[in-house]
Please model this.
Amino acid sequence: MSKEKILIVDDEQDLLKLIRYHLEKDGYKVLCAYNGEDALFLTRKERPELVLLDLMLPRIDGLEVCKKIKADQELAHTAIVMLTAKGDESDITMGLKLGADDYITKPFSPKELVARVQAVLRRTKNASAAQEYITMGDLTIDLYKHEVTVKNEPIQLTLTEFKLLHQLASKPGRVFARDQLLDAISGSETFVIDRTIDVHIASLRKKLKSYANRITTIRGIGYKFKE
Model:
């Protein structure tokens, strides 16, 4: 059984109880908080591996909680999945920029939530900043040589395209806001704007051919690389 500790933060008690039931059923240790203040207190005290964080909270809102957790060196590794309402694209984008690992939109099924939690925890465990190679099927990214191959055939990418692919593929399944991707390519171009990302992504997809569909557009937010 899973033994990871998860903190649920939501002021809707019925929803919180439902989430807790399904996570405990799946073997997780579950903590609960109903406001932002208690969320920060429990995160510092209990050190959960993952926080399910509603954005609309009393006392301290979810975005501020996310910001404080990710700014704390001792807590920054904590995975955060935002619980959001439909239409909260600006809040989702801001949360991702602050360091949130993923989001799930209400209403959601318990099965979907548990699957998302499992995926985020798996990505967190497998993350390695020192990774020299990323291999997915026939796609290989050599971070040391700045080379990309598909079925051992080299793919010619610009420096900007390589940086974008590296950023997305290094954390498959994670959604990156356009601003985050702009930060990732800063230095490779003298001038970039928000929609420049879309142009580079289109070019990257064309070059990746059979792997083009691994780069998924998240409407109004940004992009992710499918696991």
About this structure: Residues 5-126 form a domain with the Rossmann fold fold (CATH 3.40.50.2300).
